[in-house]
Amino acid sequence: MTSRLRHSLVIVALVLASLVRGAAAEEVPFLTGRVVDDAHILSDGARERLTAALKAHEDATSNQVVVLTVPTIGSDDIENYANTVFHTWKLGQKGKDNGVLVVVVPNDHKLRIEVGYGLEGTLPDGAAGGIIRTWMTPAFKAGNYDKGIEDGVAAIVARLEGHEPAGLTPVAQPAHRSASFSAPAMPWPMRIFFGLFIFGTLGLFTIIGILTPGVGWFLYLFLIPFWSIFPIAIIGLRPTLAFLAAYLIGYPVAKLNFRKQQWYENAARDLKTSGRTSIGGFVLSTGGSGSSFSSSDSSSSSFSSGSDFSGGGGDSGGGGASGSW
Q1: Helices marked H in 231-282 — which ranges?
Q2: Quick one: which of 75, 240, 248, 284 is 20 to 30 A from 104 by CA?
């Protein structure tokens, strides 16, 4: 592999690394109390009422319920983020795992109720989802975060204490609902697995297309619908549009830059004259309407792509429910 080719590949790797860093999740905030309002969406009165109610519930039951608001979590999914925060803060008592985390992300219009192992029987996924749909998202759509979070927390506490929530009035649903463009609900381990598969496959074919003379421009057009559709299931619409824009601009820029390299000109000439060439230790051959990409090294076997409040040491296994508005 020539030094120019190595330099070009390093540039591509740096671009991909910058995209990954840009899509990285937000850092976990410090646990400063039972209500951590980093998004500043709650009034002072609401924060005080929530803190008092959650302290009274913990004193009576030992359950730890904490509310967190953050402006955005970037391209991270709400399930993964909530689970990370829960494990970092270690909500609930050690051995009881009786913690609950309510996460609200106003800029991303996402929320989640994350439930510790020990409370999954009392607050199962279906009940958590019902609280989100009944008490929280209607109020959020109306722009009333105080009511949505206070009513949601009151419903959670009532469920954990074994009675129905009293004195709560749901906000009326709007006459029409706009389409949701967030990533569909999916457990975060499965999301990671499919994300690696989808982005690994698309990334591999993208790199092959950039490095390949001739058929590379066909791959550029061919991959556009795949970059437009498949990532939505993993990261949602807005991050997918960002990746698509990077692909639409970065692919031709990188390819036009490579066309100026001597190795690229030699490869294009070899393909025209003999239908076969070697690029960086891999053999590219064309025949009819098809093409192949394989290793020219016979020894290679394959090519693959500051508070007095703290958590008590509890754990969560991903139970709970998520929502959007």
Answers
A1: 232-235, 237-258, 262-274
A2: 240
CA–CA dist 201, 207 (Å, integer): 10
What is the predicted pLDDT for the residue at 263? Answer: 72
Query: Is the Cβ–Cβ distance between 60 and 152 less than 8 Å?
Result: no
Give the pLDDT score at 27: 80
Start-to-end CA span in the chain (Å): 52
User: In 3D, which of 234, 225, 241, 227 has the Cα closest to residue 195?
Assistant: 234
**3-class state of residue 43 by DSSP:** coil
Structure tokens at 130: 């019902």
Give residue 240's identity as a one-letter amino acid code. Answer: T
Low-confidence ranges of the chain (pLDDT < 50): 1, 5, 15, 17-25, 175-181, 288-306
Residue carrying structure tokens 């690994």: 200
Q: How far is CA 129 from CA 87, 118, 235, 254, 262, in A?
A: 21, 18, 21, 46, 59
Looking at residue 177, its amino acid is R
36 — alpha (psi -120 to 50), left (phi > 0) or beta? beta
**Cα→Cα distances 234→130, 190, 195, 203, 237, Å:** 24, 9, 6, 15, 9
Q: Locate the DSSP E strands across 82-138.
A: 99-105, 110-115
What pLDDT, on a 0 to 100 scale, did the predictor assign at position 294? 44
pLDDT of residue 209: 80
Please classify residue 146 by burial: count the beta carbons closer than 10 Å to its beta carbon, then call 0-12 exposed, 13-18 middle and 19+ buried.
middle
Distance CA 299, CA 151 (A): 65
- The alpha carbon torsion through 278, 283, 284, 286 (nearest 10 deg) reads 110
C-alpha–C-alpha distance, residues 250 and 230, integer Å: 19
CB atoms within 10 A of CB 115: 32
Q: What is the pLDDT of residues 23-82, one digit of tens each?
A: 444 588 899 999 999 999 999 999 999 999 999 999 999 999 999 999 999 888 899 999
**What pLDDT score was predicted for residue 163?**
87
